[in-house]
Batch of 4 targets.
Target 1
Amino acid sequence: MAFPIPSRQLFIDGEWREPIKRNRIPIINPATEETVGDIPAANAEDVEAAVSAARKALKRNKGRDWAATSGAHRARYLRAIAAKVSERKDHFVKLETMDSGKPLDEVALDIDDVSTCSEYFAGQAEALDDKQKYPVKLPMDRFKSHVLRQPIGVVGLISPWNYPLLMATWKIAPALAAGCTAVLKPSELASVTCLEFGEVCNEVGLPPGVLNILSGLGPDAGAPLVSHPDVDKIAFTGSSATGSKVMGSAAQLVKPVTLELGGKSPIIVFEDNDLDIAAEWAIFGCFWTNGQICSATSRLLVHESIAAEFVDRLVKWTEKIKISDPFEEGCRLGPVISKGQYDKIMKYISTAKSEGATISCGGSRPEHLKKGYYIEPTIVTDISTSMQIWREEVFGPVLCVKTFSSEDEAIELANDTEYGLAAAVFSKDLDRCERVTKALEVGAVWVNCSQPCFCHAPWGGVKRSGFGRELGEWGIENYLNIKQVTSDISDEPWGWYKSP
C-alpha cells in the first residue's frame, strides 16, 4: 500500500519550523526498502530553541498558564488529545505501519493505547488536585506540615522506534499531567507519527511550547537535549549502552533520569501446562512487534520432561505465522526496522550456529519475500549459557530454548543475566508461580501469559534494564517535585536563645 507521507518540520513553540541547518533524514519503508519521504534533522541550535520555548511556557504568566494550573485544567487537554487521536486513528495507523514495518493489526492496538494512556493520565492529573497540601503528621503540636506536588520543570523525553507514538505517549502524558513542559526527541528510525502528534497539539489548542517535538540523530539532537542546563529531567527508553551515556551526561548536572533499557527476559514453562496454550504464549512473547521489544521473553526455560514435545509444538505454531507486507490482512510478522538491524540479527543467528547451537526453525529470509528486512521467526536449541545469543539482547524474532530439571535451577538460570526487565512463568500450580515470581529479579512478572501491558500498572526494570517506573500512579511521580511545607502555628516564642 502506498500513500503520501506528510512533509513536516520541527514542532517548536506551537509552530512548524525548518531546522536551522535545513538537513533532512530519509524515511525508508522497511517492507520495501524504498525511500518514501523524509523528516527534519535537528541539531544543538534547534534543541536550544525548543528548550527555550519549553522554559518560556513553564514560566508564562508566573506558571498560571500551565505549570501552576489545576490538574483538572491540564486533564481537559489530555482528554482532547485522546479524542483527536481516536478521530484520526486510521491516519496514524497507516503512517506508523509504513514507517515501522509493524503489522497493521498491532499498530491499530498501539494507537488505541495512545488514546487510553492519555485518558488515564488525565485522571491522574485530576487526582493530583486532591493530593495537594497532603498533611504530614508530626510529633510536635507546635508545627503543622503538608506536602506540595509540583512539576519538576522542563523535561527531555527520548523515545524508541519499536512503539513510536505509544512509548512517546508513555512519557508525554504523565509529564503534561504533572504540569511539566517537554521536548520530545523520537528515534530517527520512526518519527513520522510523533511529528504528526504536533498537529494534534495545535488542533486541541495546547499552549505553545508546552510540548516541542524534534526529530533528528542521537548525537546531533538527543545528546544536546540530555546535557542542556535548562532541562530539569530526562526520561529515556532505548538500549542499555545508550542509557549509560545518557546517565553519564545527566550526572554532570546532577540531573534526574528515568531509564527503561534493554532486556533478555526469561519465560519458564513447567511440566504441568497445557502445551498448546503455553506454546502460543511463548511465541507471542518473543515474536510480537516483529521480535523488537525490550521485554521479549526470548530465553525459554522448559522442564526437561516435556522439552522435546514442547519444542515440537513451538515449531508447528511458528510455521503457521503469516509473514508478509504489514498491510496484508492477517499479517503477524513484518520486517525488522532497518538494514542495520537485519544484519545484526542475522549475525547473531550465524554466530549461534558456529558456536554449536541448532536452528530448529527459521533463521533465514522468507523465500517468498525478496525485498524488505524480513527474517523468519527463529527457534534456537542446544543452547549453552555462555553463548552470545543467550546472553545478549538480539531485538529480533529469535527465541532461545534451554532445559531445566528443578524449580531452583529454573530460577537460577532465569536470574543469570545482567538484565532485569520482565519474566514469565507458566504452571497450573499457583503456589509455585508465587514462589518463582518472588524469586525473579525483574520489574514485571507475567503468570501464565507474556507481554500484556496496561497503562494502569507500573513499568520498568532492575539491573542493566534501568530504574524508575513509568505508567500507573507511579508514572506521574517521575515528573513531580515533592515539597515539604512546615509552619509554626504557635504564638509562643521559640525560646532557644535568651531574649535581648
Target 2
Amino acid sequence: MASAALGGGRLGRLIGSDHALFVYGTLQFPEVLTALLGRVPSLEQAELTGWRTAALPRRLYPGLVAAAQRCARGCVLSGLTASEWTILDAFEDEEYDLRQVRLDGRNAPVWTYVWTVAADPVDWERDRFAAEHLASFAARSARWRRDPASFSDSAGPGWSGPVA
C-alpha cells in the first residue's frame, strides 16, 4: 500500500506497505468487518501491556487509554488494502489518534487508534457488547458503509446511545 493512495490526515503517517492494525473493540468482530469491508482480513489474537480498553460515555464502542500495569486484549488485522484503511479510518471518530505501539511478543510495531479525550473509569465489556449490541451494530455499520453521509452525528457510525 503506497502512502499516496491514503491521502492526508491520520493515514498520511502510513508510509510503505504491509501495515498491521491492532483492534480492541468492535473491529475485532468478523460481523462488523464484513459489514464495513465486505470480508474479514487476517485476525490474530494480541495483547498490549500498559493500556486498557475503556468504556466511553454514552457510546457502545471502547477507546484505548494508557493504564499502567493493565493489558488490552484484541486482534491484529493484517493484509488491509489502501481502500480498506480509508474505510476504517473514516469509521473512527475524530477523538481517536492513529499511533504506533509495540504489542506483547511482536518485534515490529503496529498501528492502533488511541482515544484522546475522557473515558469512563470502567473497562468495556466485549462479551456484553457481543450479546446485547453486536447484531444491531453490524447492521448499522453496513448502512453507514453504503451511505456515510446519512450519518450526521459527530460520534460517527458507532453512535452515542444508551449503555446501562
Target 3
Amino acid sequence: MTVDSFGVDMTAHDQARHQILDAAAEVFQLRGFDRATIDDIAEEIGATKGRVYYYYRSKFDIYLAVYEEGMKNVRRVVEPFSTGTGTGAERLTAMSEAHLVNLMQNLGYHNAIHQGVPGQRFAALKERQREVLATINGLREDYEAMYRQVLEDGITDSSIREGDRRLMTRVLLSSLNSTAMWFRPRGGQDEAEIRTLALQIVSQVIGGIENR
C-alpha cells in the first residue's frame, strides 16, 4: 500500500480511477461520447455518480483520461519490440502484432482513441484540459514517430521497399486501427486465438510494404 503525506491510500485511489476509466471506455464505445452520461459510467461500476465526480470533474475530463490511458498502454506493450533484434520488417511485424493484440483486448480504449477528441472542436477548453490535450497529441506523434523510425530502418536494411515514410507509416497504422471498426470479441475467445487473428491481419498489412 502506498500512502501520501495526507494519509490517502494511493493504491486504492489508482485502482478506483482505473475502474472508472475501464467502465467509461466501455460506455463511450457503446454509446459514443455525445450520448454517454456520468450516470451510465456510474451504473457500469455499480456506484453513484458522486463517486465518479470525486475522481473526475466532467465527462470530458474522463474522456481525455481514457484517451491518454489508451495511448500510454499501447505504447507500453509495443515499444519493447521497436528496439529488439531482427530486420526493420521483422520488428515492424512484432510491433504491429502487439498493437493489434492490445487493441482487441482493450477495444473500448481504442474506440475512444479513434473517435478523436471531441473537445478539439470546442473553443473554450479549460487550461487543465488544454494541457492534457497537448500531452495526448504528443503521445500520438511520438507513437507514429516510433513506427516511422523502424520503417526507416527497414528501408535501410532493404527488408521494406522504398516509399514516402510518413505516408507508409500512416497507412500502416490506419490499416491496423481499422480492425476496431469490425472486431468484436466472442465469448470464450482466448489470447491464443486473438494472437492468431492478429498475425493474419499483420501478415496482410505488412505484406504491402515488405521487400520480397
Target 4
Amino acid sequence: MPKSKSSPVAKIPPRRKREPLTRSQMMARIRSKNTKPEVLTRSAVQALGLRFRNHVVDLPGKPDLANKSRKWAIFVHGCFWHSHTGCRLASSPKSNTSYWGEKLARNQARDAEKIAALEAQGYRVLVVWECDVRNGERLKRALQAFFAPSEVREFVKPPYA
C-alpha cells in the first residue's frame, strides 16, 4: 500500500476537544505555496497543454507559474491578502486595523512593483484571484483570454496504424 504524504503541520483535533488556537498558531497554518487556488490554476493551465515552472525564484515576485521561453507569468492571489477590490472575500480586519491596513497596502504596492518589473523584462503577466478560481468558468475565461490561440496546443491522438 502506498505511503500517504504527511503534512508538516499537525492535524487539529475538533474544537470541543482542544483549547482555542493562539493567533500565532492560526497564522502558522496559512500556506504561501501549493494552496488550493494555486493547484487548481496549475491544473487548468496544464489542461490547456502549456508547459510552465512553479515558483520561479529568479524572476521578480517569484511568480506562481511562469514560462521563461514564452515570456509569461501568472500570480495566484488570495483576495484577502492582496486586497481584491470589490470582492466579498477581501474583508478588512476589525481589530488591529492600523497594522493590517499598512500590511495590506504594502502587499499591494509590492505586487504592483513586481508586476512592473516583469513587464519591463518583456513578460505578459496575469493575476488570477482566489474568487475567480472558486468559479471555474471565470478562471477558464481568464486563462483563454490571456493565452493566444497560437499558444494553446490542441492534442490530437494520432490515428492507429
